[in-house]
Specification:
Elements lengths: L2 H8 L9 H5 L7 H7 L3 E6 L9 H10 L2 E4 L5 H4 L9 H13 L2 E9 L7 H4 L7 H20 L3 E8 L13 H6 L5 H15 L4 E6 L8 H17 L5 E4 L2 E3 L9 H16 L3 E10 L7 H19 L5 E6 L36 H12 L6
Parallel strand pairs: 1-2, 1-9, 2-3, 3-4, 4-5, 5-6, 6-8, 7-8, 8-9
Helix pairs in contact: 8-10, 12-13, 13-14
This protein binds ligand G3I.
């Protein structure tokens, strides 16, 4: 955090917006949420309870100005809501939801079940489900969904019910303590189906979403195939699932992710198949990994903006997509800065988001704005 940002944080009211904002957003100064609204799209971001985000008045003011919807980056995860069994902690999520409601900003929920065991609360993995493990696991899942959905009620209109169930390495469904307890065979599909049925029972008003990070590149082909197979199976079972959350952590993740147009073609095929099955779409966690772009900031920012433009022009063209959320607004707070698999070989800080550490708009913001302005309007 720089001195300038700290000083900004101390200002009050409208003055909280960074000085560079007006100049960087063009004469009209149209916000991203206003541009989105004209197209029937909701634009927003993830926000985290940390000092540099929800705790920073300047950052909050930026979110308020740019966003019509937010999602908690971590605070509604099971790990956060119930870090120890029967010891709930709703306060950080409640504070965000109260703020959003006060500002007229919608909030979506992320997530009821994170499939990788690593991201379930540690106590779930050690749970003794008793002599009838399937009933025990169902009882625990029911209690969790009931507690969380009843707590937030209709204030959360869209839930990521299951997060990242498909293993990108082989396209198979991930196993965890719940899937193992629910079935002695494959297990995972039963558990995923049950998760959605419970969500439907306790949040009948909500859009129920499966959220994952498959991309268009060849390295992601098994991942895409696995997600399609799972969605088809859920359709067959009549599972109450409404939409696929496209996390959209795009950019140069690995060597295979650099085929430009060919990747976009695969992505289009994938989106066609998902929408063909009758699922709605959302962009849930957009950012651009710049790890293989040059160190030079102008070149890097231009590369990030160009990759975003290509991806967004295609993805936003799908009329079934009506929410578009970033995974943070400013580079310094991005998860990519500290994620083991993400770092640049030159170890420079990454620049994956539309604002820099001093909350100055970057070319990525302009690219997002242009893609939104160019997209076809959604039907009311
Ligand atoms: O809050 C503690 C802090 O008290 C402690 O000092 C610090 C030390 O490591 O950890 C802090 O918690 C971290 C938390 O982020 C808040 O910063 C956790 O260790 C860290 O694991 C956690 O990472 C989050 C990750 O999900 C796992 O929950 C990232 O912020 C968050 O961006 C990331 O988000 C995921 C989506 O949920 C699903 N899709 C992929 C996306 C990126 O990985």
């Amino acid at each position: 955090m720089t001195t300038r940002r700290t000083a900004l944080g101390a200002l009050a009211g409208a003055a909280l917006l960074p000085k560079a904002f007006a100049a960087d957003t063009g004469a009209a100064g149209e916000s991203l949420k206003e541009a989105a609204k004209k197209k029937g799209l909701r634009f927003g971001t993830a926000i985290s309870a940390g000092r540099n985000q929800f705790g920073d008045p300047a950052y909050r003011a930026l979110v308020e100005r740019e966003c019509g919807i937010i999602v908690a980056e971590n605070e509604m995860k099971w790990q956060a809501l119930e870090p120890r069994r029967n010891a709930p902690n709703f306060a950080p999520a409640d504070a965000m939801l109260a703020w959003a409601t006060d500002k007229g900003i919608a909030m979506r929920g992320h997530n009821l079940f994170w499939q990788a065991e690593k991201w379930l609360p540690a106590w779930v993995a050690k749970e003794d489900f008793g002599a009838r493990p399937a009933q025990g696991a169902e009882r625990l899942m029911r209690k969790h969904v009931k507690t969380v959905c009843e707590h937030f009620g209709k204030r959360i209109g869209s839930w990521d019910v299951v997060n990242e169930a498909v293993d990108p390495a082989d396209g198979k469904l991930r196993q965890n303590a719940l899937t193992r307890a629910l079935s002695s065979s494959s297990g995972a599909i039963e558990q995923i189906d049950l998760a959605f049925r419970l969500a439907h029972e306790y949040a009948p008003h909500a859009q129920l979403v499966y959220n994952d990070y498959m991309r268009g590149d060849t390295g992601s082909s098994k991942h895409r195939a696995g997600v399609l197979a799972m969605l088809a199976e859920l359709k067959k079972r009549g599972t109450p699932i409404h939409a696929l959350g496209l996390q959209s952590h795009i950019g140069s993740w690995d060597e295979s992710a650099d085929r430009g147009k060919a990747d976009l073609l695969e992505w289009r095929k994938f989106l066609d198949q998902v929408s063909g099955m009758g699922y709605d779409l959302l962009i849930t966690e957009f950012d651009v990994n710049d790890r293989r772009l040059p160190a030079d900031i102008a070149k890097r920012d231009a590369g990030v903006a160009a990759a975003a433009r290509d991806y967004l022009d295609l993805t936003l063209s799908y009329p079934r997509l009506s929410d578009f959320l970033l995974w943070g607004m400013a580079d310094n707070i991005s998860w990519l800065q500290t994620w083991d698999e993400a770092p640049r070989t030159d170890k420079l800080p990454m620049r994956p988001l539309p604002y820099d550490a001093e909350l100055r708009a970057k070319p990525l913001r302009q690219a997002i704005l242009e893609s939104i302005r160019a997209m076809p309007a959604r039907q009311a």
